[in-house]
Amino acid sequence: MSSSLNASMMEKDKVESAKLLHEKLCELIQVLRMSVQDREHSLTLRCWKSMNEELRIGLDVWRAAIGSISSTATKLGLVLADPSLCREATDQCEQLATACYVISKSGAGAPLNELVSTATLQVLTAMRGLVECLISNSRTVDAPPKAGIVWEACDVALKCPRSNRAAFHRKILAWCCELKDSIEEFRRVLLEEDVDDEESSTAQGQEDQFTDDLFFFGKENYTEIERQNMQKLLAVLHAVGRTLQCTLIELDDAGTNGDFDRIVLCFTQAERIHQVAALISEELYPPLEMKTLALRMHTLLSDLDRFDIAEANVLELCRTRINIVLCDLPCVSTSS
């Protein structure tokens, strides 16, 4: 009787400990989400390739907390909501959130702060999922998969860049990859339409028209004029990609000279150019909305005119390709 009572009390302690941990995780996640946007406006870039002492310590503490959380999640997945482990996890998660805040105040630029904040949220959210499993279900087999999600989030977090330079480079290269993927996607679409046209010509008159209508499913193709426009539009996106790549050189030059204001300005301008290019790529599905694309092109041209980087020939190539779209095609003329 006594042993069963003790077991019941221990089980109750486990649940209560898990609930306290869950409350703390919910609080940390809410505070972090609310503060991320405010931090972006108060960031002060203070180092580039090498880290200042504050930022180095902040990142070291942050990475150590992630390692501890990963280890604790493994134990929680095996022994369930052990009270001492729940208290350890609470301390570790608070340490992680605090380190994230310190990093944002220690010279981290926008890209590094974004990566650290996102990774922190993912780790805390995954940990919350594990704790919710422990509270709602005491079966041992259900906890390890949730612990695995925590491990995965921790592994991703530990791959975060260790300097502002690496974070800025990763961000801009990600933009370039997005543009490259978009260009390749639409080139494949155009190529597939060429193949479909050839097959359609070969099989003309050999298949029942009812079957053709039945399997059409509303698929839209480019008109011949749109296909011609697409080649010019994709050339613009390619030129934008080259412009963004040149931004990396500009940022490194400014970083070497300790011109952090220049880095922030150049990055902000490049981010704006990428945003407009991304909007353009979203408009490239048939049928093309030429007036919308014309407006996007004018916006992009205006942003490029304000973009001050040393690679003037690359900027001029980008402007030239935009002007070809705006001036040579009647349906996208500047008067539309």
TrEMBL record:
GO terms for cellular component: nucleus. It comes from the Eukaryota. InterPro entries: GCIP-like (IPR026907), GCIP-like_N (IPR049317). Residues 68-189 form the Cyclin-D1-binding protein 1-like N-terminal domain. This is Cyclin-D1-binding protein 1-like N-terminal domain-containing protein. It comes from Aureoumbra lagunensis. The lineage of its organism: Eukaryota, Sar, Stramenopiles, Ochrophyta, Pelagophyceae.
